[in-house]
UniProtKB/TrEMBL annotation:
Source organism of the structure: Chelydra serpentina
Domain Ras-GAP positions: 210-404
Domain PH, residue spans: 431-532
Identification of the protein by name: RAS p21 protein activator 2
InterPro entries cross-referenced by the UniProt entry: C2_domain_sf, PH-like_dom_sf, PH_domain, Ras_GTPase, RasGAP_CS, RasGAP_dom, Rho_GTPase_activation_prot, Znf_Btk_motif
Assigned keywords, A-Z: GTPase activation, Metal-binding, Repeat, Zinc, Zinc-finger
Lineage: Eukaryota, Metazoa, Chordata, Craniata, Vertebrata
Annotated GO biological process: intracellular signal transduction
Length: 670
């Protein structure tokens, strides 16, 4: 049985649509009506099990020799058990007789059940293995779980209706990395191309019918190569050229806003979780009525109580967002910093635009969306019930209003401005979080001595940790927050000093002594909060120092020895961004190849613009494209087309080889 993709309608099961994997390509990029099939728990199986079967020779009580079958399956989830079943014609529990000539016809059927359910055991799937594969040796393999033989049969003949699906199926063959060098380099040059509309990355967004198809691989590739900030800055500046009203900044679905959306989803995933999940859990698990629409109020509802409940929730969510600013990932801060300055440059007479450009965007397109649909962002396991969903919608709309300056009256704006300016640090790129005079140990010293400790002024911002000889003077050393790998306490025995902690950011840790235990805890907590969304955070560290040729904690004699103690904060598993650059480049190649006619049409349009010397006008051939510099755009298009045509060759070889292999396989089976 081929693998299939199933879509089941919830919250109660109406029916299902199942499409075999090999058939997905038949329905891609078009809407198709599918008949709904009944949902049968015995047929809804997935997963696989590792099974080991072995035949052992045994001598029975009467002296005859028989074969004992031993089955051993690896448990995938606690609560599974294996059961070897036999036909009811066999009466003995542990053995049964089989004629020699029937051995070849036998098969072992193994059912998997979950007995963790308090009501009844749940069928998880079954596998069947022919006995003939055993021979005299043990046999082991992974098996895909299958439905029961009668699992797809149903006595129901009722018409369950149909479901219209728009299937999008893609299959990429990723070549070795060297094949993509030319395309990858051309894409990575995009932030530096003038104008940016003539770059390969921007052209990709122009020729794709759905910009999301282009944005996903493009953002991931630029993130992987640390080019996302300059590219987003460049396309955002292009957006602002066409923006006439302050209230409409970054409101459209352009390449810039789509890239920002996708970047925040990827980079801000963990930030969103640590910020909103606790308060959303409270709202969803103990919901209070918040309905304030007179048309939706029920008899006996107290609208004033509902207003107070809503105010409480909004205030809690808003304060949580504001206070989380120091934990905002550095990459997001870099982008917001650029947006601030671009907006201020575009609208120099509006003193608030540098804040509203960021606050409206981050509230409208990041936090508000996550509040109204927490399950989509993995903040909640399931879609909330109707009442909770309505409460989340009201909170989300209010948050959007607070973040959208243009929707507030002048009197409310004055009050809100004071509150937001004082507390919202997301828009303030380098806000000072802590400032203290403490002792630091000279880095690189390998012996203990009082002269190694010097008093310095330490300053922590959302961007960097610095220390200075004198307060308010230029720093003598700077550590970017994004480079911090972990922050931990240091054992008192290391230097015979109390209240010490270490900032690990490279080969040599920075050792700092606070004035008291409260100050030390405050600095450790602040540094952990501001760096907890960093990538490459350590999972282990050395709680003491490397002195006189060895680590005092574990006695290891090599300074770069891996840490011996787990970090107290641990490493959040979901903040590591795993990106395969070649796979994303392959996806972009596929998009260019599919849209080759548009590339050629755009190339012709550039030629028409360059040749045409009359008054500027919109021609049908290129009115849908953004072409600021026809010569630069034409040159980039020529490069793209040449690269795609060159990449077509190894892909065509692969397709022919695959078709030949499939043909031989079918001939063998027949």
């Amino acid at each position: 049985m081929g693998k299939s993709v199933s879509y089941i309608l919830h919250s109660f099961s109406v029916g299902k649509v199942a499409i075999k994997k090999e058939d997905l390509c038949k329905y891609t990029s078009r809407e198709t009506w599918f008949l709904l099939q009944p949902v049968d728990s015995n047929s809804e199986v997935q997963g696989k099990v590792h099974l080991e079967l072995k035949l052992n020779e045994l001598i029975t009580d009467n002296g005859s020799v028989c074969q004992q079958l031993v089955a051993d399956g690896k448990k995938i989830i606690e609560g599974f058990y294996l059961q070897v079943t036999r036909s009811s014609s066999y009466t003995k529990k542990s053995q049964f007789q089989v004629e020699e000539e029937d051995i070849e016809k036998l098969e072992v059927r193994i059912d998997l059940w979950n007995n963790g359910n308090l009501v009844q055991d749940v069928f998880l799937g079954e596998i069947k293995v022919p006995v003939k594969v055993l021979g005299n040796d043990s046999f082991q393999a992974w098996y895909l779980l299958q439905p029961r033989e009668n699992g797809n049969k149903s006595s129901k003949t009722d018409d369950l209706g149909s479901l219209r699906l728009n299937v999008c199926y893609t299959e990429d063959y990723v070549l070795p990395s060297e094949y993509y060098a030319a395309l990858r380099n051309l894409l990575l040059k995009s932030p530096d191309v003038q104008p940016v509309s003539a770059s390969a990355a921007y052209i990709l967004g122009e020729v794709c019918r759905d910009k999301y198809d282009a944005v996903l691989p493009l953002v991931r590739l630029l993130l992987h190569h640390h080019k996302i900030v300059p590219f987003v800055t460049a396309v955002a500046e292009l957006d602002l050229k066409d923006t006439q009203e302050v209230n409409t900044i970054f409101r459209g679905n352009t390449l810039a806003t789509r890239c920002l959306d996708e970047m925040m989803k990827i980079v801000g995933k963990h930030y969103l979780k640590v910020t909103l999940k606790p308060v959303l859990d409270e709202i969803c698990e103990s919901p209070k009525p918040c309905e304030i629409d007179p048309l939706k109020l029920k008899e006996g509802d107290n609208v004033e109580v509902h207003k107070e409940n809503l105010r409480y929730y909004v205030d809690k969510v808003f304060n949580t967002i504001v206070q989380s600013s120091i934990s905002c990932p550095t990459l997001m801060c870099d982008v917001f910093y650029s947006l601030r300055h671009l907006a201020a440059k575009r609208f120099p007479n509006d003193p608030h635009v540098q804040y509203s450009a960021v606050s409206s965007f981050v509230f409208l397109r990041f936090f508000a969306v996550a509040v109204v649909s927490p399950h989509t962002f993995h903040l909640r396991p399931h879609h909330p019930d109707a009442q909770t969903s309505r409460t989340l919608t009201l909170i989300s709309k209010t948050i959007q209003t607070l973040g959208s300056w243009g929707s507030l009256s002048k009197s409310k704006l004055v009050i809100f401005k004071a509150r937001l300016f004082n507390r919202l640090r997301l828009c303030n790129y380098n806000v000072i979080s802590l400032y203290s005079e403490m002792y630091k140990r000279a880095q690189g010293r390998t012996r203990i001595g009082k002269k190694n400790f010097k008093k310095r002024w330490f300053c922590l911002t959302s961007r960097e940790l610095t220390y200075h000889k004198q307060r308010d003077k230029e720093p003598i050393y700077t550590i970017p927050i994004k480079n911090i790998l972990t922050v931990e306490k240091l054992e008192e025995s290391a230097f015979n000093r109390k209240n010490m902690f270490q900032v690990i950011y490279g080969e040599k840790p920075l050792y700092i002594q606070a004035n008291n235990c409260v100050e030390a805890s405050e600095w450790i907590e602040a540094l952990c909060r501001v760096s907890r969304c960093n990538q490459r955070r350590l999972s282990v560290y050395h709680p003491s120092a490397f002195l006189n040729g060895n680590w005092l904690c574990c006695k290891a004699t090599t300074e770069n020895t891996k840490g011996c103690t787990p970090c107290t904060a641990g490493v959040p598993a979901d903040i590591q961004i795993e990106i395969d650059g070649d796979r994303e480049t392959e996806r972009i190649y596929s998009l260019f190849a599919i849209n080759m006619p548009k590339l050629q049409k755009m190339e012709e349009a550039c030629g028409s613009i360059a040749v045409y010397q009359g008054p500027q006008k919109e021609l049908d051939d290129y009115s849908n494209f953004t072409i600021e510099d026809s010569v630069a755009t034409f040159q980039t298009l020529q490069q793209i087309i040449a690269i795609v045509e060159k990449l077509n060759e190894p892909h065509e070889k692969y397709r022919k080889k695959r078709s030949s292999s499939l043909y031989i396989l079918k001939q063998t089976e027949s």
